[in-house]
Design a protein that fits this description.
The protein has 164 residues and is of the alpha+beta class. It has two helices and seven strands, in the order βββββββαα.
């Protein structure tokens, strides 16, 4: 659905990756079909290029276990996001999209609710989400620490000082 967002932000001008935006990542144990613990199976990802409110450039993911014939239990990601289309007035028009990814750590069967000219930017955003997911799976399975969150990356884990 295309909608006008009066507070939309344009995508980062420089190359970026996604990292966890808010709370620390709570990973399932190594070998689990899912990356996230079931009680903490939803999170928001943001670009790692600046410390700012990315609004439409963030994506939210929700993970669950699905049963696929021949594969058994696999992770299923439900991804919600938006892409910046063009500035208009005070803000911009954005396209909201939803995608489902079955077995994101493996062959990744992807179903997307966006097409036409807008398909390519949606696919680029989904590729970044899958890169983040697969990196976290590798780190988890090698007993390495997760990637930094936005907060950790930009504040070195220290609280931000507020201007009075």
């Amino acid at each position: 659905m295309i909608r006008h967002d009066p507070y939309a932000v344009s995508p980062p001008g420089e190359p970026f990756d996604y990292i966890v935006d808010d709370e620390p990542l709570r990973r399932a144990s190594p070998g689990s079909p899912t990356l996230l613990e079931p009680a903490y199976s939803a999170l928001r990802l943001a670009p790692d290029s600046l410390f700012r409110n990315w609004r439409n450039e963030c994506v939210t993911i929700r993970e669950e276990i699905g049963l696929v014939h021949g594969l058994g239990p696999v992770a299923v990601l439900h991804i919600h996001g938006a892409i910046f289309l063009y500035p208009r007035g005070f803000g911009a028009d954005v396209l909201d999209f939803e995608a489902t990814v079955i077995d994101p750590a493996g062959e990744a069967v992807i179903s997307v609710g966006a097409g036409g000219a807008h398909r390519a930017p949606v696919q680029r955003k989904l590729a970044k989400v899958l890169d983040w997911y697969r990196t976290e799976i590798k780190l988890r399975d090698s007993n390495s620490s997760p990637l930094l969150t936005v907060y950790e990356l930009w504040t070195d884990g220290r609280p931000l000082r507020r201007a009075s």
